[in-house]
Design goal:
Layout (H helix, E strand, L loop, with lengths): L3 E2 L2 E3 L2 E3 L5 E4 L6 E5 L6 H18 L2 H17 L1 H10 L4 H25 L6 E8 L7 E8 L4 E4 L7 H13 L3 E4 L5 H13 L8 E3 L16 E6 L1 H8 L2 H5 L3 E6 L4 E4 L8 H15 L11 E5 L3 H13 L19 H16 L3 E4 L17 E4 L8 H4 L6 E7 L2 H9 L4 E7 L3 H11 L3 E7 L18 E4 L6 E4 L2 H5 L2 E8 L1 H8 L28 E3 L3 E2 L2 H11 L4 H4 L1 H6 L10 H12 L7 E12 L8 E13 L5 E11 L4 E11 L2
Parallel strand pairs: 1-5, 8-9, 8-11, 9-10, 11-12, 13-14, 13-18, 14-17, 16-17, 18-19
Antiparallel strand pairs: 2-3, 4-5, 6-7, 7-22, 15-16, 20-21, 23-26, 24-26, 25-28, 26-27, 27-28
Helix pairs in contact: 2-4, 2-5, 3-4, 3-6, 4-5, 9-10, 13-14
The structure holds NADPH dihydro-nicotinamide-adenine-dinucleotide phosphate.
The site of NADPH dihydro-nicotinamide-adenine-dinucleotide phosphate has 24 residues, from β11, α7 and β12.
Length: 672
């Protein structure tokens, strides 16, 4: 294979850097590519992101950005085979590559769909409800999120060159922030190829993404408080970068996801012979061998009740012995190579530290001959310590390869304390069929772990497993794991936005947030809104209905018809005796039904379906003889696809005294 010179993507052009460094194949040590970023003006890259990429992204709405993210995912999928070819050179099998490449594209799809479903088709995201700050309602407060006006610097780890880039890019772009991506050098050729696919897809505006292959030079000197650094890698590098003087001085947001001594626990009820025991053995072996154990979430500490530790050792050793490891391109290979010989040396040094602390190897030989000469191969290595309280290193030292240590615990309290001894981890799994054990363990240990999986016979078939970070769930952990979070659906987008408390009138808040806010002016236009396509509806357009009086006969008819004969609707004396009502009241559901009867336009038209109600509140009881009327206002609208959109209506139901009887948001699916 020809050695490729990897290029930086700097200010919308591909350029070679000085001082090239060679990257070799994990399989046989043959040269693959050179990286180099010498001579690049890193300050200019940041300025380009802030001055060109940021404004272009911020002009788009969340939904427009969400559609771009989907298009990037489709571009990756269309050219995935090119990426799979390079994936092998990192030592990874095709299955490992699936997690990286298709998992990366899947993360883009997930963020795109969440963005379109959960974010408004606007530029501002509201945080929480309007806070009333005054008696007359003229002075209100609203928290809003807006896009940061700097750049996101993404520093990625070597182990997932595609997924690692995309899981950070998806929330960043959705937030409207441009990114500068710096992959780990040892696998930068795969990241560069995936980055190139995205550039060639011509989906993103100029300046939205840039790439550095090689060192970052003086980039950090140019950071400001509007920038974000998102880092994945070693705790050592994280703490070095976090304490960079500019990061400290400018209060640059720093998201760190770093080494973690993840634990897995065989529950006290999960004796040999139970489904949970078998699942535990399978999961620990899988986590040791997928990606040759080079996963931030891999199980490093496997804990079992003391009386079952021998059985665990035997079952795990037998399973690991069957793992075919070797050239990842060969048919049937289950585990490939580590990323490089130096990573292999590092893992062997860490194994030696674990041994020095009292752990002993019970399966696998670190000195075994490599299946391919010159390759960075290491078989799965299982260690055991019988005194996990004395062997502190097993809770401190991460061997970032196919390495795990089994250890006993006495009881659940002991297991909780041992699990928490890792001082903060990304992922933990517990294998139990006992709700009591799950409660005691999770409540005792959750504060130390970013994600916890309770696995058993009931969910194993559908589970995504211990090691899979999911775009909709947070990925990160406290303490040693970095003290940050990534992903987690829309939570991850907010890392790249600023929350601001805005205080003003409802009119101003509505204008700022691009949606109708109760108390803001309404526009009572001609024509029923259900007769208008979404494009003809404006935010604030309001329909005011006729009013209708509610009688005792209506209430009794509704009670008979639905079967809801709750005393407050049917028994005058009992209703009077309640601390809430002055007598019989109309059913809440009757009020909703009458409201719909008042505002609905019956004929087929651009409103296709009622898809739900949100934030429903009943505020004033409606007594027989009272009347009700409705104001239906367009709160916000968003496109779901080319053929359908969603209109969110603010529904306000008033009585004859103009007191608010009920409010809610109505969601309808509409013709755009
Ligand atoms: P590093 O922390 O050395 O590297 C992580 C990233 O940081 C790489 O992109 C690297 O680039 C970059 N980097 C390193 N130094 C600097 C610097 N001074 N300024 C800016 N960027 C920098 O981790 P490694 O990849 O070498 O892995 C070492 C260990 O980290 C592993 O053995 C494992 O323990 C842990 N790790 C944890 C991961 C996790 O997901 N939690 C993932 C990967 C590793 P470059 O490659 O060019 O040096």
């Amino acid at each position: 294979m020809k050695t490729a010179q990897l290029l930086n993507y700097e200010r919308d052009r591909w350029i070679a850097g000085d001082n090239p460094a060679e990257i070799v194949s994990a399989i046989d040590g043959a040269p693959v590519a050179t990286t180099g970023s010498g001579g690049i003006d890193f300050g200019a890259m940041l300025r380009h992101a802030r001055d060109v990429g940021g404004p272009a992204l911020r002009r788009l709405t969340f939904h427009e950005r969400a559609r771009m993210i989907k298009a990037l995912g489709l571009a990756i999928m269309a050219r995935k085979e090119e990426l799979y070819e390079l994936n092998y050179l990192t030592g990874a099998t095709r299955k490992d590559g699936w997690i990286d490449i298709e998992g990366g594209a899947g993360t883009l799809f997930s963020f795109s769909s969440k963005g379109r479903r959960e974010l408004p088709d606007a530029h501002v995201l509201l945080d929480g409800q309007l806070e009333g700050l005054s008696k007359q309602g003229t002075f209100v407060g609203q928290h809003i999120y807006t896009s940061l006006q700097g750049a996101a610097v993404h520093i990625n780890a070597f182990n997932f060159p595609v997924w690692g880039m995309l899981e950070k890019l998806a929330p960043t772009i959705l937030a409207g922030v441009p990114a500068i991506v710096k992959p780990a050098s040892s696998t930068a050729y795969l990241c560069e190829a995936a980055f190139r696919v995205m550039i060639e897809a011509a989906v993103l505006p100029p300046g939205a993404i840039q790439l550095i292959v090689g060192g970052v030079g003086d980039l950090f000197d140019h950071l400001t408080g509007q920038d974000v650094v998102s880092f994945t890698g070693s705790a050592h590098t994280a703490s070095k970068l976090k304490s960079h003087p500019t990061v400290m001085r400018e209060s640059v947001k720093f998201i760190a996801e770093q080494d973690s001594l993840n634990a897995s626990l065989l529950g006290p009820d999960a004796a040999p012979g139970t489904p949970e025991f078998d699942l535990f053995i399978r999961e620990v072996a899988t986590e040791m061998t997928v990606k040759a154990g080079q996963k931030c979430t891999a199980i490093r500490r496997a804990m079992a009740p003391a009386e079952h530790l021998d059985a665990v050792q035997q079952a795990l050793s037998e399973r690991l012995a069957k793992t075919k490891f070797g050239d990842p391109r060969a048919e049937g290979t289950r585990m490939g190579a580590l990323v490089s010989l130096s990573q292999r040396d590092d893992v062997c040094a860490r194994i030696a530290e674990l041994e020095a602390a009292g752990a002993r190897i019970v399966a696998g030989d670190p000195a075994a001959d490599p299946p391919v000469a010159g390759g960075a191969f290491l078989p799965p290595i299982l260690l055991r310590t019988d005194d996990p309280w004395a062997a502190q290193a097993v809770h401190d030292v991460e061997a970032f390869g196919p390495v795990s240590t089994i250890m006993p615990y006495r009881d659940l309290a002991d297991a909780v304390a041992l699990a928490n001894r890792g001082k903060g981890s990304l992922a933990l799994s517990l294998f139990t069929h006992s709700p009591d054990a799950a409660r005691e363990f999770v409540q005792g240990a959750a504060a130390f772990h970013g994600r916890m999986l309770v696995l058993n016979r009931d969910n194993a078939a559908e589970s995504t497993g211990h090691g899979s970070p999911l775009p909709v769930l947070v990925h990160g952990g406290p303490g040693r794991a970095g003290g940050s979070e990534e992903m987690g659906g829309i939570r991850g987008v907010k890392h790249y936005m600023q929350r601001t408390a805005v205080q003003s009138t409802p009119t101003m808040i509505a204008a700022i947030s691009e949606q109708y806010i109760p108390g803001a002016p309404k526009d009572f236009r001609d024509g029923h809104p259900f007769r208008k396509r979404m494009s003809e509806l404006h935010i604030g357009d309001t329909l005011r209905t006729e009013s209708r009086t509610v009688s005792v006969a209506d209430i009794e008819h509704f009670a008979e018809f639905t079967g809801d004969k709750f005393y407050a609707h049917m028994d005058e004396e009992a209703a009077k005796a309640s601390p809430i009502f002055e007598g019989r009241v109309a059913h809440g559901y009757l009020i909703l039904s009458f409201a719909a009867g008042l505002f609905v336009d019956p004929d087929p038209g651009p409103v296709l379906a009622n898809t739900g109600l949100e934030n429903l509140r009943f505020l004033t009881p409606l007594y027989p003889g009272d009347s009700l009327r409705v104001e239906l206002t367009v709160r916000s609208k968003s496109l779901k696809s080319e053929d359908t959109g969603v209109v969110r209506w603010a529904v306000e139901i008033f009585n004859q005294k103009d007191d608010l009887v009920a409010t809610y948001d109505l969601l309808t699916e509409n013709v755009p």
